Amino acid sequence: MPRRLETDLDALSSPGREPRGSDQPGLPEDRTRPLLELHDVSLTYAVRKGSLRAVDPITLNVHQGEFVCVVGPSGCGKTTLLRLIAGFLAPTTGTVIDSGEPVRGPDARRGMVFQQSHLYPWLTVRGNVEFGPRSRRVPRKERRAIADRYLDLVKLTEFADSRVWELSGGMQQRVALARVLANEPHILLMDEPFGALDALTREHMQDELLAIWRNTRPTIVLVTHSVEEAAYLATRILVCSDRPARIIADLEAPFSRGGPSTNGTAQEPRAVKALPEFVAFREEVLRYIWR
Asked: Are residues 100 and 159 in the same domain?
């Protein structure tokens, strides 16, 4: 059974919370300085009849190389939290800090992958992936090399000159992921990126994403409604309460690194998800949501 890190809300929200140790397999050794910090971040919307609190004050740290999944009841504020981190929304209270600097708006260093691919239909697959570097005036030869590198990473090299409407939904999501990676963000934010896909394609996409994370070690914060997906992908799971969102559990998840019974060796996905300790961990996370 994975170790429960912290579930006491007061302990989680304490500004003096100590960073966790660096003895986790596959994660960077230097984890003393968080890459991403939230200090008492909350959001209240103005509505016709007054105000609506979407996010209660949240304090948390995310370190370089972590794969953090956020789960919780539908409509609880998970996506709102992600948009606060991205800089799409300004917090009502508190501060979001990226690499020691306050977040004041969107930034290419924080790439966002949405549930829908939102690709440009008038561009080829390569043209979509080149869009960010082209906007930054990267020379043509260099941006083509960048695009080809990430198309190879998501296994779409042979479709580089295709139109995006010629691709399946799963392939379009891979193009969207490559387009974000081409900007070389140090934080990858993902809002239910596989939610619109069929079950089989979704599992294939989980493995593609996990392979990218293992090979390139970006810092990822992913929102999902699937607890099984979170348990399989994450190094750490944050469980949100009903709205207004607050963090009610912060759990270490070892299965993206192979699971405790495999000595850190990656296994076939269905084999991992069938492990007794995986099933027990999934049910532990679900109990927090079903309270």
From this structure: no
Residue 289 lies in a domain: yes
CA distances from 30 to 24, 104, 257 (A): 11, 27, 18
Tokens found for residue 101? 């600097």
Q: 14: phi > 0 → left, psi -120 to 50 → alpha, else beta; which?
A: beta
pLDDT tens-digit map of 126-136: 999 999 999 88
Count CA within 13 A, CB hemisphere, residue 58: 35
On whether both 222 and 99 belong to a single domain, the answer is yes
Q: Are residues 100 and 234 in the same domain?
A: yes
Nearest to 211 by CA among 171, 152, 262: 152
Residues 99 and 206 in one domain: yes
Please state the pTM of the whole predicted model: 0.82
Q: Are residues 105 and 136 in the same domain?
A: no
Number of continuous H segments (helices) and E segments (strands) in the chain: 9, 11
Taking CA atoms, 218 is separated from 66, 84, 123, 198, 253, in Å, by 8, 19, 27, 26, 17
- Contacts of residue 230, defined as CB under 8 A and 6 or more positions apart, other chains included, come to 69, 70, 71, 222, 224, 237, 253, 285
